[in-house]
Amino acid sequence: MSRMEQMTIADQLIAEFNHGNWDQLAKLLAPDMTYTETGTGRRVTGAEPYIQLLKGWRQVFPDVTGTIDASVLEGATVVQQIAWVGTQAAALPTPSGEVPSQGRRFTIDAIAWYTISGNRVVAMHHYIDMLTMLQQLGAFEPAPVQNTP
Q1: Which CATH topology does 3-136 take?
Q2: Domain coordinates of the chain in residue numbers?
Q3: Phi and psi for 25 in degrees, rounded to 5?
Q4: Could you point out which of 1, 14, 25, 32 has its C-alpha 20 to 30 Å from the C-alpha of 54?
Q5: Do 65 and 53 meet the contact criterion of CB atoms below 8 Å apart?
Q6: Using DSSP, how many helices (H) and how many strands (E) does the chain show?
């Protein structure tokens, strides 16, 4: 597989998510792929559970889109810097309870690491800035900045 093909697979994942093309997205995933999400602690194994996770995300944020700001390729790994933007339309489940929807928008940065083998993603690790997202959604107010001498 060429370097360009590896980059294209990673780029397509974001494009298919943005358009809600679940069948096309599934074709890019190994059936036993793993997904780990730093920031929430979620981890799923399997293409179908991962797609269900994405569909759940889309229910809470129906207009969410990702824009790839930068990409790096090294061996079988593609790394993308992604800006996620969306509007909360439903309650967001968290380990501490639900964050009710106030219709607020968020803009956050994330980093996604994809391991690609045989023209499919076999592992993905998504580093997502949940603290900033929760702040923007009104789940809590930021702590005041303290000046130290």
Answers
A1: Nuclear Transport Factor 2; Chain: A, (3.10.450)
A2: 3-136
A3: -65, -40
A4: 1
A5: no
A6: 4, 8
Are 22 and 130 contacting, i.e. CB atoms less than 8 angstroms apart?
Answer: no
Q: Which of 133, 126, 130 is nearest to 33 (CA)?
A: 126
Answer yes or no: are the C-beta atoms of 126 and 33 closer than 8 Å.
no
Q: Are strands 65-74 and 77-87 parallel, antiparallel or unpaired?
A: antiparallel
Report which of 64, 99, 57 is spatially closest to residue 82, judged by C-alpha positions.
64
pLDDT tens by residue, 61-97: 999 999 999 999 999 999 999 999 999 999 998 878 8
Identify the sign of the CA torsion 130, 136, 137, 141: positive
Residue in 105, 96, 100, 102 with CA at minimum distance from that of residue 136: 105
Q: What is the DSSP letter of 103?
A: -
**3-state secondary structure at position 85:** strand
Those residues whose C-beta lies under 8 Å from the C-beta of residue 122, and which sit 6 or more positions away, are 30, 32, 33, 34, 115, 116
- At 108-132, the pLDDT tens digits run 999 999 999 999 999 999 999 999 9
* Measured distance CA(35)–CA(42) in Å, rounded: 8
